Amino acid sequence: MKSLPNLLWLRSFEAASRLGSFTAAGAELGLTQAAVSNHISALETRLGHVLFERTTRKVGLTESGRAYLQPVRKALQDLAVSTEGLFGSRSSGTVTIRAPISEAVLIIAPALAEFQKVQPDLDIRLLSAIWADTVLETGIDIEIRLGAGTWPGCQAEPFGTEFIVPVCHPELAKSLNSPNELSELPLIHILGFDDHWPHFFEALEQERPDNTKGVTVDTTLAAVEWAAAKGGVALVLERIALRLAEAGRLEIPFGTRIPSGQNHYLIHRDRTPSRSPAVQTVENWLRGLFGGN
Fold first, then answer.
1. Reduced to 3 states, what is the DSSP secondary structure of residue 161?
2. pLDDT tens-digit readout, 59-92
3. What's the CA gap between 25 and 13, in Å, rounded?
4. Per residue in 243-256, pLDDT tens?
5. Count H helices, E strands: the chain?
6. At what angle do helices 7-19 and 63-87 cross, to 10 degrees?
7. How far is 41 from 279, CA to CA, in rounded Å?
8. In what order do the strands lie in the sheet with 154-160?
């Protein structure tokens, strides 16, 4: 065992050999390119042999490197198989999703049952936050945000353009003959989306109604519940409105819709470790869930 090289060096060696790049190996292992390069150099010094031929564009294995790769790869695979056999697989383990509370309750949660029929081995933890700009926490595998797409220290992958539509209780919808009559109902305002109603009435080429006529809530979830209780009409994301209309809870009285101005994004933290197969599976599902109306 004294002659066994550092396991981190061997992992960097195997990844760089497979990917043909120290940078790509670092991205997969959650390391910098310099760290991978240092691991390889230390391993070469330890063995007394050069393992890679380095150029400005790529790296390739030397004859010694090719001879060493197979036993190293087999050893790492055997270790992974033994670990999985004794302690269970982490590739199909728990995946933690964090999303704004309204999206967690009204979009993700209703779709989870069907998803788990397809992926029964996945355990999902769904956490919610009221405000989309809450600081990222540790232990979160997937972060979804609604906003303009810019957050320090993060890369934001857009899901697609979001639209908003009016919704109200079916009985209230029956009393409406045209979109212009919406202003006669109590308007439900959502904090953070104060410009939605003005933009909506602008799209109708209608004068903005008196803002005092209505109520204000801090989440779309609260707005939906207020509207379902015949409290007035709310502007919500079209994907949410369609599901609620299908369930018979609310109705979309007219087909007028406008861009939300804020879209959903999948957040990638800078220098994040490589994502497990389970996380990638859930991310792909969320892309489909949020990617189309």
1. coil
2. 889 999 999 999 998 888 888 777 766 655 544 5
3. 9
4. 999 999 999 998 88
5. 11, 12
6. 110
7. 32
8. 123-129, 94-100, 142-147, 263-269, 154-160
Pair of tokens at residue 129 = 């936050």
Q: Token pair for residue 121?
A: 């081995």
**Total residue length of the chain:** 293
Beta strand pairing call for 263-269 and 142-147: antiparallel
CA atoms lying within 13 Å on the CB side of residue 43: 26
**The two three-digit tokens of residue 144, written as one number:** 């979804």
Q: At 58, is the secondary structure helix, strand, or coil?
A: coil
As beta bridge partners, residue 54 has: 59
| Rounded distance between C-alpha atoms, residue 231 and residue 185, angstroms | 9
Tokens for 171?
A: 């009985």
Q: Are 227 and 167 a contacting pair, CB within 8 Å? A: yes
Task: Of 268, 216, 220, give the one whose Cα is nearest residue 101.
Answer: 220
**pLDDT band, residue 270 (cuts 50/70/90):** low
**pLDDT 10s digits, 35-60:** 999 999 999 999 999 999 987 667 88
Q: Are 116 and 122 in contact (CB under 8 A)?
A: yes
Q: Comparing C-alpha atoms, which of 166, 194, 163, 196 is closest to residue 180?
A: 166
Residue with the bigger pLDDT between 262 and 273: it is 262
The three-state secondary structure class of 266 is strand
